[in-house]
Specification:
Elements: H1 2-17, H2 26-38, E1 42-53, E2 57-67, E3 70-76, E4 82-89, E5 92-97, E6 100-104, H3 108-116, H4 125-130, E7 138-140, E8 146-150, E9 156-165, E10 168-177, E11 181-192
Amino acid sequence: MRFSWVVVLLSLMLAACSQQPKPTDAVSVWKNHQQQLETLNQWQLRGKVAVIEADKRQSANMVWTQQGEQLAMQLLGPLGAEALSLEFSPGNLEIKAGEQRYSGANDPELQLQQMTGWSVPLADLPRWLIGLPDTEQYLLNDQNRVSEFVSAQQWLIAYPSYMQVGELILPRQINVETPKGQLKIRINQWQINDD
């Protein structure tokens, strides 16, 4: 009798000391991951971007730095030559594309389109890069990460692969299909600077 009380007591003590189990259902896993991504404030990625249109293909190495609502992007061509430099914060945009320069606050997305021919939703792009959809309608993959969604602009954003970055799982590859063509981003390195 005494032995069974010891076993019961030991079982209760072990149960009390165990950690709470991690969520296993898809919605809980996704919501936890989503909350982690929402807290990212300072990060940088390095990779390659390709723009594919009916009549042309262009590619460049890309460095994207995000600090809160401020972003800086550099596109580098052959031998590291700077093809485009962009700095954006709410209310201001600075672009350098070859000999062209722009600085101002009037409709930054329209200005970027006029200088480069690219229609880019600058406010949404940081979320897309870390794997957060801008809509409640999205599909999850087997690891409960976003596999694709249709953006507010009616673009198809797809995430064919992810990579482990410290405690996070972040996109390795992002494919964007627009009426004008495709944008493919291959990320080689993430650096998370949040404390």
